[in-house]
Design brief:
- Helix content is 35%, strand content 22%.
- The protein is an alpha+beta fold.
- Strand 6 (127-131) and strand 7 (138-142) form a beta hairpin.
- The two termini are 17 Å apart.
């Protein structure tokens, strides 16, 4: 499914830069926080260095994007950071935001029609979709990452 998925995105004008080394090492801060990552998503991380739409306003987060030391215009947890900034000194709201994002690993970011994302639920492996202004209010987009890829290939999920 992974090759079919990547071929589909290439056919839609996405930039797909293949990884020359299939080894994936997420930074410990990410790997320690998210322990239930689907094998198919890890395979995607091992397969590509970059996966971005042609207009560069939407992209899948790749292994390098999770490097918290890297100087990048958009951090992998950008929407969490924005929510925490909005919460200010409200300890309860801050805790709720952190809990939400500990249970949802961001895998895709979009700037197309406002800020939006897809994330993998650590509870059940489903893929959820959320957007501004309330990033933590999300809906299930697919029951698994495998089904999410299938939906994209079939044109049932738009990126």
């Amino acid at each position: 499914m992974l090759e079919e998925f990547l071929t589909c995105l290439e056919g839609q004008g996405w930039s797909v830069i293949r990884n020359t080394s299939a080894e994936v090492r997420l930074p410990e801060a990410v790997a320690g926080r998210y322990r239930s990552c689907p094998p198919s998503w890890l395979a995607l991380l091992g397969a590509v260095q970059e996966l971005a739409r042609g207009d560069e306003r939407a992209w899948f987060l790749c292994a390098g994007d999770y490097d918290v030391q890297a100087d990048q215009p958009w951090q992998w947890n950008e929407w969490e950071r924005l929510s925490l900034e909005a919460a200010g000194d409200d300890a309860l709201w801050t805790a709720e935001i952190r809990d939400f994002w500990t249970e949802h690993l961001p895998i895709f970011m979009s700037l197309s029609d406002g800020y939006a994302y897809y994330a993998i639920s650590m509870k059940d492996g489903s893929v959820v979709y959320g957007r501004e202004p309330e990033f933590e209010e999300c809906e299930t987009a697919a029951p698994s990452f495998d089904v999410f890829m299938e939906q994209i290939v079939k044109g049932q999920t738009l990126l």
